[in-house]
Amino acid sequence: MKKELQELCDYRELLYMMIYRDIKVRYKQSVIGFLWAILMPTLIVLAGVVVRFGFALTAGKHLEMSEIASVAVKSVPWAFLVSSIRFSCSSLTGNVGLVTKIYFPKEIFPLGAILANFFDLCVASMALAVLLFVLRIGWSLELLWIPVLLLILVLLATGIGMMVSAGSLFFRDVKYIVDVILTFGIFFTPVFYDTGMFGDKGKWLLLNPVAPILEGFTACIVQHRGPDLHWLAYSVAFAVVAVLSGYVFFKHLEPAFAESI
Amino acid sequence: MSDIVLRMEHVYKMFRKGEVFNSLRDLIPALTGKMFRRQELSETDKREFWALHDISFEVRRGEAFGIIGHNGAGKSTALKILSHIMKPTKGRIVVDGRLSALIEVTAGFHQDLTGRENIFLYGTIMGMRRREIASKLDDIIAFSGLEDFIDTPVKRYSSGMYARLGFSVAAHVQPDVMIVDEVLSVGDYVFQRKCVERMKEEIRRGAAVVFVSHNLKDIAAFCSSCLLLEKGRTVISGPTHEVISGYLKRFRTNGAGHLDNSPVTISKVTVRNEDGECLRFRSGDKAWIDIELRAHSPCRKLSVNLYITSNSNESVFDTSTERLGYGNFSLEAGDVYRCTFELTLNLANGIFHPSILVYRYDTQTAYDRWEPAAAVCVSSETDVRGSAHCFPKVIQREIQAASETGFALETGCALATQSDRN
After folding, report:
1. Can you say how many angstroms the Cα of residue B37 is from the centroid of all Cα atoms in its chain?
2. Alpha carbon of B231 to those of B11, B46, B113, B182: distances in Å?
3. Do the Cβ atoms of B58 and B228 come closer than 8 Å?
4. ipTM of this predicted complex?
5. Residue B343: is its pLDDT beyond 50?
6. How far apart are CA B165 and CA B156, in angstroms?
7. CB nearest to B112's CB, from A16, A20, A25
């Protein structure tokens, strides 16, 4: 495994170029590129606001600014997770020529797809920062948690991305299964709602490893407190296991890629 | 550091023929089905197919190695294993240094990026550093001849421009081992020459080249040794001329005009120089072609025709014993007839194929035909191409100084070469 990581390191320039390629192609018309980066998060936020408004109506309360902020803060990372998994899923099957013709470490494809989406996340975050400023959320030192949470999220996306990219190369319908899971995953993940709304039963929802990360974002950005460290540790463990097993799985199947595509 | 940069040791590659499940929807029913029908498992073994069977060779620094064979002989599989895209089922490959494969030079391009951006993208795919590419960028662009279009997205390129850009990048990787698969067929003639020169330069620099082609001319021009594959097995391996004549021998006996049940058959054709059987000749050399026929039943009024075709299958020379004035001959059952043609090979650079036909003129019957019966690889010190070598000389050349005429004028041909020696 050390040898393989060394090789990946030797090809890091190719990884930069792949990320550059994806970003460049997407942002060629800069306005459309920017819209693309914020389109999905915006839609998710709007959907969340509608859902939250419904909740507030049934409870006979007013919709608070912090609730909108909380939905927005969770939607942007969720949008990143969904699109990075979706893009890495088709990253190998969409580059048949390169997979079957030229040798280099193939994990560059899913990694490139995820990191190019991370760039989109950064663009969307700027829009989000403006929104939070307008909503007068304020800031605190707890914001220092953001890089940590992002790192966990990227690790998780990488692990899942490597598995689905290799899987979809061998079985074409993996793509559809992944699509269905990603579409409905939002209902099992606290994006529109908070696990706190479920009282004690809320912790069952935190078993979804994405949940503690998203809750962590709300905690440190909107509520100005640290994330729940126990549950976050659970997410970290899950992400690390996902990355390791995803990498091993990917590397194990890699020699068969060219024959099976 | 050892001189051998690439070594293939007893490489085997197996594929499974038949159905491959590429969706879970097909796989799951098949697996559950298999649980009830255990015996089906043994049937899969019959579908095994060995694309490569015990292939070994080694290539040294500064050497070009050719792989020839018919379609489906395993050439592409061998290349994919060499370039690490596939793993061999058994055996080992050792590569010492950077390897670059010119298998499909345009695979790495992205339609929406400009030529310049694609040079960087494809360069990094080939394992170069960005700094390295930046330093060679001007050379690459100049080599491709696409200076005017380099900032245009490649989707607007013609397919020839596309391939030229790809090859230009690949040609500047400076690998230790270079794998070339038919890429010389891209681009126009001028660009092809440029590519050939570039590859020769790489070989001189010390790169090892593995070259795959059906084009015997290219193989003969480049490679000092080669390997003939047939159905995944090594048929012959060794010096190029031996392998090429072996290839032609197999090709011939496997059909191509060889008639069974004919009353008279050709039993032997050899091309030789003063010293014996030979493949390589220089323009103007004498060559002798020995022909042996065997009669199985009585035959009348025979003659032996000899014709030579160029690599592009044009007939460049045609004669026969009868037309040379030796009359026809008749054979009884069991007779053996031998004759030798003496030729002066006034041919230009290239590969030519002598073919032999046993013919009866009055009834217009062809009894047996070996086409091609052999190959001759002709080389010439003078840079002449085509079929015939006319031993050109430039007998007058002068430059009138501009001061005298107001124009710079050059008479005579730029082809003033060493031809004076002839």
Report:
1. 49
2. 14, 17, 41, 20
3. no
4. 0.85
5. yes
6. 13
7. A25
User: CA of A212, closest CA in chain B: separation in Å?
Assistant: 32
Beta-carbon contacts of residue A208 (< 8 Å; ≥ 6 apart): A188, A189
Question: How far is B240 from B244, CA to CA, in rounded Å?
Answer: 6
Residues B68-97: what's their mean pLDDT? Answer: 85
CB contact under 8 A, A14 and B84: no
Residue B236: partners with Cβ closer than 8 Å, 6 or more residues away: B227, B228, B242, B243, B246, B247
Lateral strand order in the sheet of B336-344: B276-277, B264-273, B286-295, B336-344
Contact between chains at B22 and A104 (C-beta distance less than 8 A): no
Collapsed DSSP state (helix, strand, coil) of residue B19: coil
B-proximal residues of A, 26-45, CB under 8 Å: 28
Beta carbons of A255 and B117 less than 8 Å apart:
no
Cβ-defined contact of A260 to B20 (cutoff 8 Å): yes
Structure tokens at B325: 């004035």
Q: Which CATH superfamily is domain B4-239 in?
A: P-loop containing nucleotide triphosphate hydrolases (3.40.50.300)
How many whole angstroms separate alpha carbon A240 and alpha carbon B251? 59
Q: How far apart are CA A90 and CA A169, in angstroms?
A: 8
State which residue of chain A sits closest to B23, comparing Cα positions. Answer: A171
Distance from CA of B41 to the nearest CA of A (A): 20
Could you tell me the pTM of the whole model?
0.75
Residues in chain A closer than 8 A to B15 (CB atoms): 259
Low-confidence ranges of chain A (pLDDT < 50): none
pLDDT at residue B42 is higher than 60: no
Do the chains contact at A171 and B125, CB–CB below 8 Å? no
Size of interface A-B (CB pairs under 8 A): 79
Query: Quick check: B410 pLDDT over 70?
Result: no
Place of tokens 């699509």: A179
Which structure tokens are listed for A68? 């909108």
Relative orientation angle of helices A174-185 and A145-170, to the nearest 10 degrees: 150
CATH of domain B257-379: 2.70.50.60
